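Protein modeling request. Please complete all fields; requests missing the sequence field cannot be processed.
Requester role: graduate student
Desired output: 3D structure, token encoding
Chains: 1
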Amino acid sequence: MIRIISLVPSVTELLFSVGLGRYIVGRTGFCIHPPKEVDGIPKVGGTKKLNLDKIRGLSPTHVIVNVDENRLEDVEDLQRLGVELVVTHPCAPEDNVSLLQQLVVHFAGEVPEVRAHSARLEQRLTQELAACRAQQWPARRVLYLIWRDPWMTVARDTYIARMLAEVGWTTWPPHGGGDHGAARYPVLTGQEPWLEDMDELLLSSEPYSFGPQHLAQAQALCPNARVRLVDGELISWYGPRAADGLAYLRQLAGT
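Delivered output (255 residues):
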């Protein structure tokens, strides 16, 4: 009998979308979607602070982790428990196809419906990617903020930056952050000369919950940019939100 613990909020939601929700026996406190369905599933800590004793007590057969979301030392502890780890690391919207295939490989043998649900999600994603790539988007320089005190943004090789690139938005600063680690989410001093050249400043709803009260401070950071609050879940979550996120970005880029 499959018993899954998901330590990745977006993948928890994806598991429900492919028919695996009833097999989830544990989740993080940040796994909040779908709300009614996850409410009764035990929490095993946060994405970066796990309760290993609780995980052990839930006797999972599979634990789903993510290179960005979870700490290497926690993954090593999980390996010592002897569970099957499903390691995820989508770095671009099309990588959701590989993520879906991982679920098919690990679970479709016992839960055949996973295959059909995954195919449906893949088809929708393919359609939305094609819609983005069918248009000629004007180039825009974008600062996407995920945190304040200090200001933090995203490197160009992150999933978020590559989602934004689908509508012609190029994130700054102009460098990659590597496969993992803090460099993927650079800290800004606020004195960078290129801040004056930004066309768009996007304030994400997560992990920091930016709101209207932050607009003036953000505008001072990038005085020549258009400042907007954006739905971070649609732009940064994998799985069923990926296609909706691309449609959302097309709407934003068109206004």
